Amino acid sequence: MLTYAHARAEIEKLVETFARNERALHDAQEAQIENNFIRPLFRYLNWNVDNQGLARAQWEFVLQRTERRKRPDYELWLDGRRVLIMDAKKVKYEMHDPRWLNQVYSYAYSTQNDPPTRKTDFAILTDFQEFIVLDCTLLAGTPQAINNFRVLDWRYPDYVARFDELWELFERNHVLRASQTRDAGLWARYLVPKKVKANRVPPDKAFLAALDDVKTGWRVRLAKDMKKHNPALGGDVLTAAVQLWIDRLIFIKVLSDREIEDDYLAQMAEVVERDGLAENHFGWFAATRGIFQKLNQIYNGTIFAPRPELEAVNVSNKVVREIIGELLPENSPYNFASLPVEILGTIYERFLGRVVHATDKQVRIEDKPEVRKAGGVFYTPQYIVNYIVAQTVGKLLAECKTPADVAQLKILDPACGSGSFLIGAYDALIQWHENYYGDKTRWSQRDRDAAYYDADGRVRLTAKLKRQILVNNLFGVDIDAQAVEVTRLSLSLKALEDTRRAELYQEVDLFHQRVLPDLTQNIKCGNSLIGTDFIFTDADELRRVKPFDWRAEFPSVFKRDGFGDVIIAETRHVSSAGLGFDAVIGNPPWLMAGYYVGGEIEYLKHNYISAEGKFDLYYLFIEQATRLINANGQFGMIIPNKFFHTKAATKLREFLASKKLINLLIDFGDERVFSDATNYSAILIFDATQNDSFSFMRATTGLQISESHAIAFNRIGKEPWHFEDNSIQELFTKMEKLGNPLKEIVARFGTGVQSGADRILMLDKEAAIGLGLDENILRPILRGRDVRRYKPVLATKLLVFPYASNDDFDLYNEEVLRSLHPNVLAYLTQNKKKLADRIWFGKNATELSGEWYGMMYLDSAESFRSRHLLTPSLSNKSNFTLGNGTFFVTGTAGVTSIIPKNIAENISYLLSILNSNLLSFFATHHSPIFQGAYYKFSAPYLKQLPIRTIDFTDSADVARHDKLVALVERMLTLHQQRAAAQTETDQQIFQRQIDATDKMIDALVYELYGLTEEEIALVERQ
Fold this sequence. Notes:
The protein starts with a helix and ends with a helix. It contains 43 helices and 32 strands. It is an alpha+beta fold.
């Protein structure tokens, strides 16, 4: 290990040597520059450039020079983390040439979606004479733009003149610490500026934009050009043809970047250029047909095979030339040698959510209807895929002793999308085989046909074995034909990882073997939920529904009679041994069944127990999986956690509980596994065996487990599920025995005014005055944020309410509005378009004339005149207060009103119970959690709160009642006084008393429910 002074002295000698020989070194070979100058430079900076004494996993300088020299020369690793990419050049090269910069930049930039251990932010380009460091977190619009990303641009004298910086930024131990903490070295100096944050676009988003930007993306350019030259084509054909072209071009680029094949993109560009094809003609396809035919002979019968969608479509030379040009290595910021197939899957998953919509006059790209309903496409994070695969496929592999055992496994994703789960399973299968052969001390000839040691001493599988794994083990179905194409493409690309060009062409030339298998019998387009017994009315419905016969489509999986003959509700919940898949995994659609129509809904309701009410499709995928797995089968999916509690999932909960199917349930609570999704997630794992209990875990994003305990099946059923540990569950049972459900002492739960046009109908007072709206047509209205614990309610919004009275809801007609309230009519008319899209609730909702504007139905005037309680419908804890009868309240997720029956207890007593720590603890444990740790305090979740009623023949009970009423009255007064306080000191004095009164209320409530000291501690720890 060299010291600062020793390293400086050695590097100074190195610089002097280069200076003396600079002219002669101009024409030196690259290897000479590396061995005599670049590697010594890093050796003096304490890097183990020869990897002496290091196991392969600890190598620091990883040489990856390849035959065609398309990859940077070195990856620099420290402590299992790839920290830098470096490429060496001859001295004679111009180092600012975009070609050389892009080669090293694109490789590093393409790692930006990788896990932290592989994500590489900086790349070095050097011939020792010059030393350039690039910030590769930034997206380069053009290769020329990469010059703007130079964070260092030194000449060799700078190694000495700026040695302090060189030592700080590149000394081995400094780099190790800086790369781990990112608060020092290159990371602290050059990744901090906010001004470039907007340009830090990761490869998946950048590549998706290149594919799918609505104005400049390859899809829209190809689609518009196809439509221009093929006017009769509809959206379906255009969607398919565009994707097939893009798939082919991407596949060719992957082959080139990984140096498996020649650069056929460049060859295509040369052919078009050489033949002088005019931009407005279509000759490029005929001119390059030979390339596609050659690739089809080498690879498989799906990607490059003749397809009617392509044969009948003309695309102009101009558009194809432009897209090929953007994909060429010298122009593209993406390098598929370092961009994993898994990331390509994330790109394609979003790409699949949109289609080409064509009319006679225009072409546009738009979301699929089901994607609009779901709020977008959400790709499953890789760590979720890995975990589910480990819990299912991993368990199966652990039982396998030989490759012959593994070959028997059948793994299915019934909603495969872009193939992420199947790729994860494929990866696990490959890893098992690599470990198996790596553990063997002696290899037979059969072993050598299956695996080999690469130049770095690592076990790799032959292309032949990887083909066999694909065909033997992996199966997928999707209703979307484009998704099926992408899954086949993704699996094919995964099979080509680490493929040796020499091995590939030996198989092709000697054995006439195609490199990839035909996956058409493994990955199929069809409806995983609807069988061929579905009665369809016409060909269009048949094409849309795509009925699917599992036995007929996968005969190797379902070999015996009996599959599907019995509905699972009657006699069994899994297939017979040996019949069905060994694992069913995936991320099923989270859509409501409204995606289906008419006869499909009836079919689903007839064939699935959980198809009841407003059911979601993932219920049925879970249920269907129990028919598809065999007696030893494993199931694992990520699904919304709302099935724990939503009414629509009652039958699903009952089904899972009665069959005792769950092995493991992981709840992510309010953590967003899918960053843009509004739903929250859970992982469900089960197999075909039955148990008395299952493991329940709470986890944060990244699968950090925060809570874990067993849940007995006798604790769950069709009612909403709760997963407290035994001590908490015992406390709740005790409370429920002592109390009556709130619904038994409440006359009604008010849902308030509900509107789909709040922005129009709810106004600030200043805005209403500015619009000249009449005060007698504006009513104060409370939102959730206006209701707080024990505090007086104060409305901050006014509701436009064009009714004559609150009692009978007589509606002003348009003539009356025009004469008495012309400004109101004018205001509603101006917003006609937005009001026309409002949501209507309630039987008494009546429209104003014109059938486009109006008000929502008020559930009852009683809600606002009887003494009642109010609570925000979403809250982080109990936040109940008294309503004063002068306000309307917002519905949905706004405010819930509670109107008690004519009970003996004072309403302030009820308020004290509901606001207590104890009832807040109960309520938050019996509600789903939403982002920000908010819980439901709406009617369905309030009805079961156990309220301890008073025995008015018991003097002690009456005394507790009266004391709680007095404390609540004091609390209400204190809050009024604090709100009126004009100094901070006064506010603190009142707050101190509020806190003290709160504690007294809690103590009395604990006493009412008979809590022990241990139970009180349990509540107050939460």
